[in-house]
Protein backbone atom coordinates (compact mmCIF):
# COMPACT_ATOMS: atom_id res chain seq x y z
CA UNK A 1 0.00 0.00 0.00
CA UNK A 2 1.08 3.55 -0.77
CA UNK A 3 -0.59 6.18 1.40
CA UNK A 4 -0.50 9.66 -0.11
CA UNK A 5 -3.46 11.20 1.78
CA UNK A 6 -1.63 12.60 4.77
CA UNK A 7 -3.28 16.02 4.71
CA UNK A 8 -6.56 14.25 5.49
CA UNK A 9 -5.03 12.22 8.29
CA UNK A 10 -1.72 10.57 9.04
CA UNK A 11 -1.28 7.01 10.18
CA UNK A 12 -0.61 6.86 13.89
CA UNK A 13 3.02 6.12 14.74
CA UNK A 14 3.50 2.71 16.34
CA UNK A 15 5.37 4.13 19.31
CA UNK A 16 2.69 6.78 19.76
CA UNK A 17 0.02 4.08 19.71
CA UNK A 18 1.88 2.15 22.40
CA UNK A 19 2.00 5.29 24.55
CA UNK A 20 -1.76 5.71 24.10
CA UNK A 21 -2.42 2.11 25.10
CA UNK A 22 -0.05 2.20 28.06
CA UNK A 23 -1.54 5.39 29.49
CA UNK A 24 -5.08 4.12 28.86
CA UNK A 25 -4.31 1.01 30.87
CA UNK A 26 -2.25 2.49 33.68
CA UNK A 27 -3.54 6.03 34.31
CA UNK A 28 -7.18 5.63 35.28
CA UNK A 29 -7.84 8.65 37.44
CA UNK A 30 -9.65 11.85 36.57
CA UNK A 31 -7.06 14.67 36.68
CA UNK A 32 -9.55 16.80 38.64
CA UNK A 33 -9.88 14.22 41.42
CA UNK A 34 -8.14 14.81 44.76
CA UNK A 35 -6.87 11.27 45.40
CA UNK A 36 -3.55 9.85 44.26
CA UNK A 37 -4.98 8.41 41.04
CA UNK A 38 -6.19 11.89 40.16
CA UNK A 39 -2.78 13.26 41.06
CA UNK A 40 -1.15 10.77 38.69
CA UNK A 41 -3.37 11.86 35.84
CA UNK A 42 -2.92 15.55 36.65
CA UNK A 43 0.84 15.10 36.80
CA UNK A 44 0.96 13.50 33.35
CA UNK A 45 -1.35 16.21 32.00
CA UNK A 46 0.93 18.99 33.19
CA UNK A 47 4.03 17.13 32.08
CA UNK A 48 2.54 16.86 28.56
CA UNK A 49 1.58 20.54 28.60
CA UNK A 50 5.10 21.53 29.58
CA UNK A 51 6.71 19.35 26.91
CA UNK A 52 4.48 20.68 24.13
CA UNK A 53 5.22 24.23 25.26
CA UNK A 54 8.94 23.52 25.20
CA UNK A 55 8.73 22.00 21.71
CA UNK A 56 7.12 25.12 20.23
CA UNK A 57 8.98 27.64 22.42
CA UNK A 58 6.08 28.98 24.48
CA UNK A 59 5.09 28.68 28.15
CA UNK A 60 2.94 25.86 29.58
CA UNK A 61 0.31 28.42 30.65
CA UNK A 62 -0.24 29.23 26.94
CA UNK A 63 -1.24 25.66 25.96
CA UNK A 64 -4.88 24.50 26.16
CA UNK A 65 -6.02 21.04 25.13
CA UNK A 66 -8.91 20.49 22.72
CA UNK A 67 -10.51 17.72 20.66
CA UNK A 68 -8.71 18.80 17.48
CA UNK A 69 -8.43 21.40 14.77
CA UNK A 70 -12.12 22.03 14.25
CA UNK A 71 -12.71 22.79 17.91
CA UNK A 72 -9.56 24.88 18.05
CA UNK A 73 -10.61 27.03 15.09
CA UNK A 74 -14.17 27.39 16.39
CA UNK A 75 -12.94 28.33 19.86
CA UNK A 76 -10.39 30.85 18.60
CA UNK A 77 -12.91 32.63 16.38
CA UNK A 78 -16.14 32.40 18.37
CA UNK A 79 -14.27 32.92 21.62
CA UNK A 80 -12.81 36.13 20.23
CA UNK A 81 -16.18 37.24 18.85
CA UNK A 82 -17.87 36.74 22.24
CA UNK A 83 -15.04 38.31 24.22
CA UNK A 84 -14.51 41.35 21.99
CA UNK A 85 -17.97 42.05 20.56
CA UNK A 86 -18.27 45.21 22.65
CA UNK A 87 -15.27 46.61 20.75
CA UNK A 88 -16.39 45.63 17.26
CA UNK A 89 -18.01 42.98 15.11
CA UNK A 90 -15.72 42.85 12.09
CA UNK A 91 -13.46 39.89 11.32
CA UNK A 92 -11.07 39.24 8.45
CA UNK A 93 -10.16 35.89 6.95
CA UNK A 94 -9.28 34.52 3.50
CA UNK A 95 -11.36 33.02 0.71
CA UNK A 96 -9.53 29.67 0.96
CA UNK A 97 -9.87 28.73 4.62
CA UNK A 98 -10.72 25.26 5.90
CA UNK A 99 -14.45 24.72 6.54
CA UNK A 100 -13.76 24.83 10.28
CA UNK A 101 -12.94 28.52 9.83
CA UNK A 102 -15.19 29.37 6.89
CA UNK A 103 -18.37 27.85 8.34
CA UNK A 104 -17.64 29.41 11.73
CA UNK A 105 -17.41 32.80 10.04
CA UNK A 106 -20.69 32.15 8.23
CA UNK A 107 -22.39 31.38 11.54
CA UNK A 108 -21.09 34.61 13.04
CA UNK A 109 -22.45 36.51 10.04
CA UNK A 110 -25.89 35.12 10.87
CA UNK A 111 -25.43 36.51 14.38
CA UNK A 112 -24.75 40.05 13.19
CA UNK A 113 -20.98 40.02 12.68
CA UNK A 114 -19.38 41.22 9.45
CA UNK A 115 -16.64 39.20 7.76
CA UNK A 116 -14.21 40.26 5.02
CA UNK A 117 -12.90 37.37 2.90
CA UNK A 118 -9.57 38.35 1.37
CA UNK A 119 -9.07 37.14 -2.23
CA UNK A 120 -6.01 35.16 -3.29
CA UNK A 121 -3.84 35.20 -6.39
CA UNK A 122 -3.32 32.32 -8.82
CA UNK A 123 -0.93 30.70 -6.34
CA UNK A 124 -3.44 30.89 -3.50
CA UNK A 125 -1.73 33.69 -1.56
CA UNK A 126 -3.36 36.85 -0.19
CA UNK A 127 -2.18 40.40 -0.85
CA UNK A 128 -0.84 42.37 2.09
CA UNK A 129 -2.29 45.52 0.51
CA UNK A 130 -5.73 43.90 0.53
CA UNK A 131 -5.30 43.17 4.22
CA UNK A 132 -4.30 46.76 4.97
CA UNK A 133 -7.36 48.06 3.15
CA UNK A 134 -9.68 45.61 4.93
CA UNK A 135 -8.63 46.60 8.46
CA UNK A 136 -11.10 48.92 10.22
CA UNK A 137 -11.49 50.50 13.66
CA UNK A 138 -14.07 47.83 14.54
CA UNK A 139 -11.93 44.87 13.38
CA UNK A 140 -11.43 42.38 16.21
CA UNK A 141 -9.72 39.43 14.49
CA UNK A 142 -7.65 38.33 11.52
CA UNK A 143 -7.74 34.54 10.96
CA UNK A 144 -5.40 33.01 8.36
CA UNK A 145 -4.31 29.43 7.76
CA UNK A 146 -0.57 28.86 7.67
CA UNK A 147 -0.75 26.28 4.88
CA UNK A 148 -3.76 25.62 2.68
CA UNK A 149 -4.92 22.02 2.95
CA UNK A 150 -5.91 21.71 -0.73
CA UNK A 151 -3.09 23.22 -2.77
CA UNK A 152 -0.42 23.86 -0.13
CA UNK A 153 -0.16 27.63 -0.54
CA UNK A 154 1.76 29.30 2.29
CA UNK A 155 0.44 32.60 3.62
CA UNK A 156 2.89 35.41 4.51
CA UNK A 157 2.40 35.21 8.27
CA UNK A 158 5.37 37.41 9.17
CA UNK A 159 4.21 40.15 6.81
CA UNK A 160 0.68 39.91 8.19
CA UNK A 161 2.06 40.14 11.70
CA UNK A 162 4.08 43.21 10.73
CA UNK A 163 0.90 44.95 9.56
CA UNK A 164 -0.93 43.97 12.73
CA UNK A 165 1.76 45.50 14.95
CA UNK A 166 -0.16 48.74 14.39
CA UNK A 167 -3.37 47.02 15.55
CA UNK A 168 -2.47 45.52 18.95
CA UNK A 169 -6.11 44.97 19.94
CA UNK A 170 -6.82 42.76 16.90
CA UNK A 171 -6.47 39.05 17.63
CA UNK A 172 -4.28 37.28 15.05
CA UNK A 173 -5.30 33.63 14.74
CA UNK A 174 -3.42 31.06 12.66
CA UNK A 175 -4.84 27.69 11.67
CA UNK A 176 -1.59 25.76 11.96
CA UNK A 177 -3.08 22.30 11.43
CA UNK A 178 -1.16 21.62 8.19
CA UNK A 179 2.02 23.35 9.33
CA UNK A 180 3.40 21.01 12.00
CA UNK A 181 6.63 19.46 10.77
CA UNK A 182 6.25 21.24 7.42
CA UNK A 183 7.00 24.88 8.14
CA UNK A 184 8.62 26.74 11.06
CA UNK A 185 6.01 28.65 13.04
CA UNK A 186 7.28 31.46 15.23
CA UNK A 187 5.22 31.76 18.39
CA UNK A 188 5.85 33.38 21.75
CA UNK A 189 6.52 36.96 22.88
CA UNK A 190 8.47 37.90 19.74
CA UNK A 191 5.65 36.84 17.44
CA UNK A 192 2.50 38.79 16.54
CA UNK A 193 0.48 35.53 16.43
CA UNK A 194 -1.97 35.49 19.34
CA UNK A 195 -3.72 32.14 18.82
CA UNK A 196 -2.81 29.01 16.85
CA UNK A 197 -4.77 25.79 16.36
CA UNK A 198 -3.21 22.30 16.15
CA UNK A 199 -4.54 18.78 15.54
CA UNK A 200 -2.83 15.57 16.62
CA UNK A 201 -3.88 13.30 13.78
CA UNK A 202 -2.10 15.50 11.23
CA UNK A 203 1.31 14.56 12.69
CA UNK A 204 0.97 10.83 13.45
CA UNK A 205 -0.93 11.24 16.70
CA UNK A 206 -4.38 9.89 17.61
CA UNK A 207 -7.59 11.39 16.31
CA UNK A 208 -9.86 13.41 18.57
CA UNK A 209 -7.21 15.44 20.38
CA UNK A 210 -5.42 18.72 19.74
CA UNK A 211 -4.41 21.97 21.39
CA UNK A 212 -4.38 25.70 20.93
CA UNK A 213 -1.71 28.22 21.75
CA UNK A 214 -3.16 31.33 23.38
CA UNK A 215 -0.61 34.07 24.00
CA UNK A 216 -0.32 35.24 27.58
CA UNK A 217 -2.49 38.30 28.18
CA UNK A 218 -4.87 37.59 25.31
CA UNK A 219 -8.45 36.69 26.19
CA UNK A 220 -11.06 34.54 24.49
CA UNK A 221 -14.36 33.37 25.93
CA UNK A 222 -14.85 29.64 26.59
CA UNK A 223 -17.13 27.65 24.31
CA UNK A 224 -17.49 24.71 26.68
CA UNK A 225 -18.67 25.51 30.19
CA UNK A 226 -18.73 23.04 33.03
CA UNK A 227 -16.17 21.85 35.52
CA UNK A 228 -13.62 24.56 34.82
CA UNK A 229 -10.82 22.45 33.37
CA UNK A 230 -8.00 24.06 31.36
CA UNK A 231 -7.84 27.11 33.63
CA UNK A 232 -11.57 27.56 33.31
CA UNK A 233 -11.41 28.11 29.55
CA UNK A 234 -12.22 24.63 28.21
CA UNK A 235 -14.36 22.48 30.48
CA UNK A 236 -14.52 18.72 30.07
CA UNK A 237 -12.41 15.88 31.45
CA UNK A 238 -9.11 15.88 29.59
CA UNK A 239 -8.22 12.99 27.28
CA UNK A 240 -5.07 12.01 29.16
CA UNK A 241 -4.06 9.08 26.94
CA UNK A 242 -4.66 11.09 23.77
CA UNK A 243 -2.76 14.09 25.11
CA UNK A 244 0.24 11.98 26.18
CA UNK A 245 0.30 10.26 22.79
CA UNK A 246 -0.03 13.57 20.95
CA UNK A 247 2.88 14.96 22.92
CA UNK A 248 5.08 12.06 21.87
CA UNK A 249 3.94 12.44 18.24
CA UNK A 250 4.82 16.13 18.27
CA UNK A 251 8.27 15.41 19.70
CA UNK A 252 8.92 12.77 17.03
CA UNK A 253 7.72 14.81 14.07
CA UNK A 254 9.78 17.84 15.11
CA UNK A 255 12.91 15.72 15.51
CA UNK A 256 15.15 16.32 12.44
CA UNK A 257 12.32 18.40 10.99
CA UNK A 258 14.53 20.23 8.47
CA UNK A 259 15.76 16.98 6.93
CA UNK A 260 12.24 15.55 6.83
CA UNK A 261 10.88 18.66 5.13
CA UNK A 262 13.68 18.54 2.57
CA UNK A 263 12.88 14.93 1.66
CA UNK A 264 9.17 15.69 1.24
CA UNK A 265 10.02 18.70 -0.91
CA UNK A 266 12.29 16.54 -3.04
CA UNK A 267 9.55 13.95 -3.55
CA UNK A 268 6.95 16.62 -4.31
CA UNK A 269 9.19 18.27 -6.91
CA UNK A 270 10.00 14.90 -8.45
CA UNK A 271 6.30 14.16 -8.85
CA UNK A 272 5.53 17.65 -10.16
CA UNK A 273 8.34 17.54 -12.74
CA UNK A 274 7.09 14.19 -14.02
CA UNK A 275 3.38 15.07 -14.09
CA UNK A 276 3.76 18.38 -15.92
CA UNK A 277 5.25 16.56 -18.88
CA UNK A 278 1.83 15.08 -19.65
CA UNK A 279 -0.07 17.40 -22.04
CA UNK A 280 -3.43 16.94 -20.33
CA UNK A 281 -2.22 17.48 -16.76
CA UNK A 282 -2.65 20.79 -14.95
CA UNK A 283 -0.70 21.50 -11.77
CA UNK A 284 -2.50 23.67 -9.21
CA UNK A 285 0.19 23.69 -6.51
CA UNK A 286 3.10 26.08 -6.89
CA UNK A 287 6.76 25.24 -6.37
CA UNK A 288 6.86 27.84 -3.57
CA UNK A 289 4.11 26.05 -1.67
CA UNK A 290 4.28 23.58 1.20
CA UNK A 291 6.68 20.66 0.83
CA UNK A 292 4.02 17.99 1.26
CA UNK A 293 1.03 18.95 -0.92
CA UNK A 294 0.74 18.54 -4.69
CA UNK A 295 -2.62 19.24 -6.33
CA UNK A 296 -3.12 18.39 -10.00
CA UNK A 297 -5.86 17.49 -12.46
CA UNK A 298 -6.15 15.33 -15.56
CA UNK A 299 -8.29 16.94 -18.25
CA UNK A 300 -11.66 15.24 -18.68
CA UNK A 301 -11.31 12.95 -15.64
CA UNK A 302 -13.21 13.89 -12.51
CA UNK A 303 -11.24 13.82 -9.30
CA UNK A 304 -13.24 11.03 -7.67
CA UNK A 305 -12.67 8.82 -10.75
CA UNK A 306 -8.93 9.30 -10.42
CA UNK A 307 -9.05 8.59 -6.68
CA UNK A 308 -10.84 5.27 -7.18
CA UNK A 309 -8.60 4.30 -10.09
CA UNK A 310 -5.55 4.67 -7.85
CA UNK A 311 -7.35 2.89 -5.02
CA UNK A 312 -7.69 -0.19 -7.23
CA UNK A 313 -3.89 -0.19 -7.41
CA UNK A 314 -3.64 0.12 -3.60
CA UNK A 315 -2.54 3.76 -3.77
CA UNK A 316 -4.47 6.27 -1.70
CA UNK A 317 -4.84 9.91 -2.67
CA UNK A 318 -7.86 12.23 -2.34
CA UNK A 319 -9.86 14.92 -3.97
CA UNK A 320 -8.85 18.34 -2.74
CA UNK A 321 -10.32 18.24 0.79
CA UNK A 322 -11.30 15.22 2.84
CA UNK A 323 -13.89 17.27 4.71
CA UNK A 324 -15.86 18.01 1.53
CA UNK A 325 -14.83 15.16 -0.80
CA UNK A 326 -18.00 13.12 -0.34
CA UNK A 327 -20.14 16.05 -1.45
CA UNK A 328 -18.50 15.81 -4.91
CA UNK A 329 -18.32 19.58 -5.21
CA UNK A 330 -15.44 21.37 -6.88
CA UNK A 331 -12.69 22.87 -4.78
CA UNK A 332 -13.57 26.20 -3.16
CA UNK A 333 -9.86 26.99 -3.01
CA UNK A 334 -9.41 26.51 -6.75
CA UNK A 335 -12.53 28.58 -7.34
CA UNK A 336 -10.99 31.39 -5.30
CA UNK A 337 -7.84 31.02 -7.43
CA UNK A 338 -10.04 31.63 -10.51
CA UNK A 339 -9.64 28.09 -11.83
CA UNK A 340 -12.67 27.34 -14.05
CA UNK A 341 -15.06 24.84 -12.49
CA UNK A 342 -14.80 22.36 -15.36
CA UNK A 343 -11.07 22.14 -14.63
CA UNK A 344 -11.37 22.29 -10.83
CA UNK A 345 -13.62 19.21 -10.79
CA UNK A 346 -10.63 17.21 -12.12
CA UNK A 347 -8.44 18.11 -9.15
CA UNK A 348 -6.87 15.53 -6.86
CA UNK A 349 -4.37 15.93 -4.06
CA UNK A 350 -1.23 13.98 -3.26
CA UNK A 351 -0.14 14.75 0.30
CA UNK A 352 3.06 13.46 1.82
CA UNK A 353 4.52 12.91 5.26
CA UNK A 354 7.94 12.17 6.69
CA UNK A 355 7.53 8.40 6.26
CA UNK A 356 6.94 8.51 2.49
CA UNK A 357 9.76 7.52 0.16
CA UNK A 358 11.07 8.26 -3.30
CA UNK A 359 10.43 4.63 -4.23
CA UNK A 360 6.74 5.15 -3.49
CA UNK A 361 6.77 8.21 -5.72
CA UNK A 362 8.25 6.16 -8.57
CA UNK A 363 5.58 3.49 -8.14
CA UNK A 364 2.91 6.18 -8.13
CA UNK A 365 4.19 7.59 -11.42
CA UNK A 366 4.26 4.14 -13.01
CA UNK A 367 0.61 3.68 -12.12
CA UNK A 368 -0.25 7.21 -13.25
CA UNK A 369 1.33 6.59 -16.63
CA UNK A 370 -0.74 3.44 -17.02
CA UNK A 371 -3.94 5.24 -16.02
CA UNK A 372 -3.17 8.23 -18.23
CA UNK A 373 -3.01 6.08 -21.34
CA UNK A 374 -6.09 4.10 -20.31
CA UNK A 375 -8.12 7.28 -19.88
CA UNK A 376 -6.72 8.70 -23.11
CA UNK A 377 -7.85 5.60 -24.99
CA UNK A 378 -11.34 5.82 -23.46
CA UNK A 379 -11.69 9.52 -24.29
CA UNK A 380 -10.48 8.92 -27.80
Automatic annotation (TrEMBL):
Cofactor(s) in the UniProt record: pyridoxal 5'-phosphate
Domain Aminotransferase class V: residue ranges: 2-364
Swiss-Prot/TrEMBL keywords: Iron, Iron-sulfur, Metal-binding, Pyridoxal phosphate
SUPFAM superfamilies with a match to the protein in the record: PLP-dependent transferases
Keyword set includes Iron: yes
Family classification: Belongs to the class-V pyridoxal-phosphate-dependent aminotransferase family. NifS/IscS subfamily.
PANTHER family hit by this protein: CYSTEINE DESULFURASE ISCS 2-RELATED, CYSTEINE DESULFURYLASE FAMILY MEMBER
Name of the protein described by the UniProt record: Cysteine desulfurase family protein
Lineage, opening ranks: Bacteria, Bacillati, Bacillota, Bacilli, Lactobacillales
Amino acid sequence: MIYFDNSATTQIDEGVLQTFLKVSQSINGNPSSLHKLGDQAAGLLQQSRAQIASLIDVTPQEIYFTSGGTEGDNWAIKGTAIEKSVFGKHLITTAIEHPAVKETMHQLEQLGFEVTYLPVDKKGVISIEDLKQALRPDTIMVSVMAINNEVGSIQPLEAIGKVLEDYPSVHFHVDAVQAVGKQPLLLGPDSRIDIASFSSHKFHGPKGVGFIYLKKGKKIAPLLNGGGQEAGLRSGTENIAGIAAMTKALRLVLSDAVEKQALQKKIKNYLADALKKYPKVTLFSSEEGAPHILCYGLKGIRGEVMVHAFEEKDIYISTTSACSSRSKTSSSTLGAMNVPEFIATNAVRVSLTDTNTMEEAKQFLNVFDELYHQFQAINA
